[in-house]
Specification:
Layout: H1 29-36, H2 67-79, H3 83-88, H4 96-102, H5 106-120, E1 124-128, H6 133-150, H7 152-166, E2 169-174, H8 181-184, H9 194-199, E3 207-211, E4 216-218, E5 236-239, E6 243-245, E7 249-252, H10 272-295, E8 298-303, H11 306-309, H12 315-327, E9 342-347, H13 353-368, H14 372-375, H15 388-405, H16 407-422, E10 429-433, H17 441-461, H18 466-475, H19 495-498, H20 509-512
Antiparallel strand pairs: 1-10, 2-3, 2-7, 4-5, 5-6, 8-9
Length: 529
């Protein structure tokens, strides 16, 4: 027995491999939020707007109480999680400096300029409810001349432009008190109350001046009593070391923001530039992307053995490709090895790029209410294309916007100007905005012919008299007969003295029995009476 032989150990059974599920990486919402907003300290969204130091008081405050602070802290807590999107989407005040930069871009500038220009293009006409036409006509003439001297239309146009750029525009009523700080703090009333009558004498209004929102800092306002008239409305503006009562500044705000946002917007409104920012950004990106695609829509591909051609740092290959790019044209030739190389190009499709640009432009037009033909100068193409309907809708919107933005300030300013002209307010004189839509010559002639036929029908049926029709013609500024004297009607001469024949000729006496037939007819020459 070979005792020296060791017994081989029994091999241990190999355990079957156990499938271990790989650990999954879990991403928390907090990590996503940190990745989305990389700033360690998010900006304070609801805070008073920043003005230049020279345009703010030494103690910078816009309220005479502390309630605004708690409201803004609450608002910041509500909106802190989404502040990044608010900036890109134009949902928080962008600041006067940034808005001024946007005003340099034509996409923003054309919107505000077009709206302001259309609102003042035909402007207003003065009306009278008095029976004393001569006296009121003279007063209206004087009032129109004073409006022209003060350039009221130009001041309101610029004010509307500033409202589009910054969210508010100001027109300062210069009464000659600019160097009297105490007087500037006093109210001049609403143009028709006792304060206005005591403050505004004949010749008081010297000029009107536009002031940008950047230089007007709100000083005090009521934030404790929502039932008061001055709730969230500044009582005065701090204008470059001068406190000016709000009644001396015509403030134009076309798009007011909710009360909680007013301190953030420096008591202005939402500017057209800020409102259009997302749409303009999309347009600029689409425009640049389309340009990039057109510039590099095709790529040339050389299929070759790079392991060989890249020897010696690929110098020969790069010189070969550079030479091809320099000489590339329809007459250019690319020489390749027949058996080892291939040459091709890859082109991106260009179809539909024009539609993408058009859609981006239409988005800009939609937010500003301006038709494309007005905003871009591009007329629609295609069969039966027309811009007439879009222009009519646009002019209707401009008319309603005039009523909203201009009606009350103009009414107050007109009262102040009347006091400066005559020492009294003439309540019989008002104003209306001129309609913007006008007919061309052919359409106007057709409309006038229709009105003339209607007048004739009314006169013949006895509904109106000729004098009443003359009165209408004299009162219609577009009739061409405003200079006629209604009472001085022309004499209607006898038909034979005028040498005229009645319409349709004279009747046949053999049929009608009328003895007054035409003597040249051969019979029925008539009898002497």
């Amino acid at each position: 027995m070979a005792f020296w032989r060791k017994k081989k150990p029994t091999p241990k059974p190999i355990a079957a491999p156990v499938d271990v599920a790989p650990k999954q990486i879990k991403i928390s919402y907090e990590a996503l939020a940190r990745a989305k907003h990389r700033d360690s300290h998010p900006p304070v969204l609801f805070a008073p707007a920043i003005h230049p130091p020279m345009a703010t008081p030494s103690k910078m405050m816009i309220a005479q109480d502390s309630s605004i602070g708690s409201s803004q802290d609450w608002a910041n807590g509500q909106m802190a999680a989404t502040y990044g999107d608010m900036w890109s989407e134009g949902l928080t005040f962008l600041g006067f400096a940034y808005l001024a930069e946007l005003a340099q871009r034509p996409e923003y500038r054309v919107m505000s300029e077009t709206i302001a220009s259309e609102m003042t293009r035909k402007w207003i006409r003065f009306t009278s409810t008095s029976d004393d036409d001569d006296d009121k006509a003279q007063r209206i003439k004087e009032l129109s001349a004073e409006f022209d001297r003060l350039d009221v239309a130009g001041m309101f146009r610029t004010g509307a432009e500033k409202d589009g750029y910054f969210g508010r525009g100001h027109i300062y009523i210069d009464t000659g008190d600019g160097n009297d700080p105490d007087e500037l703090k006093q109210s001049i009333g609403d143009g028709r109350d006792s304060i206005s009558k005591s403050k505004i004498g004949i010749g008081s209004i010297k000029a009107l001046r536009n002031v940008e929102a950047l230089w007007c800092y709100p000083t005090g306002y009521n934030s404790t009593n929502p039932l008061a008239d001055n709730w969230y409305r500044p009582d005065a503006w701090f204008v470059m070391n001068r406190t000016v009562h709000s009644s001396r500044m015509i403030t134009l705000i076309g798009r007011e923001v909710p009360d909680i946002l007013k301190p953030t917007y420096s008591f202005g409104g939402l500017s057209m530039s800020q409102m259009a920012k997302p749409y303009v950004d999309n347009w600029l990106q689409t425009r640049q992307s389309v340009t990039d695609i057109i510039e590099s829509f095709t790529t040339w591909v050389l299929k070759t053995d790079l392991s060989t051609t890249m020897q010696a740092d690929g110098d020969e290959l790069f010189k070969r490709l550079s030479l091809f790019n320099l000489l590339r044209s329809n007459q250019g030739v690319m020489a390749i090895n027949k058996d080892t190389e291939d040459f091709a190009n890859v082109s991106a499709p260009l179809a539909g790029l024009g539609e993408l640009k058009s859609l981006a432009q239409q988005d800009m037009a939609s937010v500003s209410h301006i038709p494309l033909v007005k905003l871009t100068g591009i007329t629609p193409s295609g069969l039966n294309s027309s811009t007439e309907g879009e222009l009519v809708v646009f002019y209707d919107w401009i008319g309603s916007y005039q009523e909203k933005l201009f009606r009350r300030p103009l009414h107050r300013l007109m009262g102040l100007i009347m006091l400066s002209l005559w020492g009294e307010v003439d309540d019989d004189i008002g104003f209306e905005f001129e309609p913007l839509w006008s007919l061309d010559e052919a359409e106007a002639a057709t409309a006038e012919k229709t009105r003339a036929d209607t007048d004739v029908a009314y006169i013949e049926s006895g509904v109106l008299s000729a004098e009443e029709v003359r009165t209408r013609l004299a009162a219609d500024d577009h009739s061409g007969y405003t200079s006629i004297d209604v009472d001085d009607a022309p004499d209607l001469l006898d038909e034979e003295e005028q040498g005229l024949e009645p319409a349709g000729g004279r009747p046949d006496p053999s049929v009608t029995g009328d003895p007054g037939g035409d003597p040249g007819a051969g019979s029925g020459s008539g009898t002497d009476e």
